[in-house]
């Protein structure tokens, strides 16, 4: 018995330093941090997240390196967290599509339980745009043409099962029209497609803002509770008689099991980073604003959103077969 107790005590003593190191963030971070972003370089998410990362780098005294992981409806960064060490050195942007993933795809992890939520930083504003020379001059024209030509009106989004895709399908369902969806990996690719004449319309976050301001695209509607200041002439879906409001907050997550003290260190650094004028200005370019949620608040949001997304996926008939 004594020998067994001695072995147990020795094992505990060996483990104690490593556990203590994980629990104490005194030297965290001691090397660069990787921030996985769910959409391609050059788009609004990439541009704004790089601004945030630059600010956080100065606060943490270590580089925060953005790595783009586009595809799979914006869910690849969250999936990569599942095989990353829970040490705070790998972080991921968490778009809303992460919370609907288990309802559409067979996965072996839980978006609520298997991510340590650090903080929410902002959210997308959305709308539908067409080329400025399109014959679809207004939403009335868009709906009328779609009704007269079932399944022929092509629109692009930032990927299958993303918020722009699902919300547009919900709009079509409520209006009784059929649209042809073309998925892209992100806003940068989507804007190239619509400007190149490959699709008739685009459902996107306000990554389309620079193209609208350049006189190349026209906004037919936006999806918030109120009109966007930058596109004040574009009606909301509610004004158009559709009971739909789509806001899409997103933030930063870490692998499950990341020590609370490390999560707090990251939270505090990124919260300060998102208050910097450079980040606020980067967001304003796309009619976005800082949208802070604490670690606890963001975790609660994840739980609530997980339930809401199940209802949306089931309503659209997109749930995977059980």
Quick structural summary:
The protein contains 11 helices and 10 strands. The chain is α/β, with parallel strands linked by helices.
Shape: globular
- Major pleated sheet: 5 strands, mixed
* Radius of gyration, whole Å: 22 Å
Q: How helix-rich are the residues, as a percent range?
A: 40-55%
Number of strands: 10
**CATH C-level name of the largest domain:** Alpha Beta
Average predicted confidence as pLDDT: 91
Question: Which second-level CATH architecture of the largest domain applies?
Answer: 3-Layer(aba) Sandwich
Structural class: alpha/beta
Span between termini: 51 Å
- Total count of domains: 2
The secondary-structure element order is HEHEHEHEEHEHEHEHEEHHH
Spell out the CATH superfamily of the largest domain.
Answer: Bordetella uptake gene, domain 1
Residue windows where pLDDT falls under 50 for at least 5 positions: 1-23
Strand content: 15-25%
Please count the helical segments: 11
Commentary on this structure:
With 322 residues, this protein is α/β, with parallel strands linked by helices. Helix content is 40%, strand content 18%. The strands form two sheets. It has a five-stranded mixed beta sheet. The protein has a five-stranded mixed beta sheet with strand order 7-6-8-5-9. Mean pLDDT is 91; it is low at 1-23.
